[in-house]
User: Which sequence fits this backbone?
């Protein structure tokens, strides 16, 4: 898998490329957010190390036949899988053996709204977790509630702050901050 920084930067560049939806700002911002999450999933799929790995996202339908859904619990779930015979002869069922990455995103600049989605990562039994939120002018204050919750996360934890979709101007030179939770504090990567 690529570095978290490269993953975020590449997904942001992909989300910024191509035609952008026009319309009311809320619709435009949701579309940009969706494009970003799907780019995160595509990059993870492109960097999968084995045929048994799966990356589930809401708008990627290739996993629907095996799992009966596109998205499972998180905006992006990157996992190892295996198969087992079903009760019906000749049918194989795919199941998850290990979670590698759980990714949640919330671009609201309201830390309360963002913390709602961050909470899901506390429940994640994956090796690594990543939360992506909006880079605010008071980002140090914005991080504080996440620090309290991060103390309860098992495994590696990363938090990325990127521009709010309303501030996306170009696919390059976007300001962002990436942190790793280490020794009870956020350490900038």
Assistant:
């Amino acid at each position: 898998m690529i570095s978290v920084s490269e993953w975020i930067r590449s997904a942001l560049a992909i989300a910024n490329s191509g035609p952008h939806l026009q319309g009311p700002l809320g619709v435009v911002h949701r579309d940009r957010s969706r494009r970003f999450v799907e780019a995160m999933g595509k990059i993870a799929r492109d960097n999968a190390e084995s045929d048994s790995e799966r990356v589930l996202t809401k708008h990627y339908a290739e996993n629907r036949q095996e799992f009966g859904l596109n998205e499972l619990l998180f905006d992006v779930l990157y996992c190892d899988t295996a198969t087992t015979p079903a009760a019906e002869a000749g049918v194989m069922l795919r199941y998850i053996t290990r979670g590698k990455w759980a990714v949640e995103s919330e671009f609201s600049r309201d830390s309360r709204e963002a913390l709602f989605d961050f909470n899901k990562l506390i429940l994640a039994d994956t090796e690594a977790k990543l939360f992506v939120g909006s880079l605010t002018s008071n980002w140090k204050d914005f991080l504080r509630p996440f620090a309290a919750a991060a103390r309860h996360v098992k495994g590696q934890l990363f938090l990325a702050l990127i521009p709010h979709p309303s501030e996306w101007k170009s696919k390059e030179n976007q300001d962002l901050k990436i942190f790793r939770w280490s020794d009870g504090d956020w350490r900038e990567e």
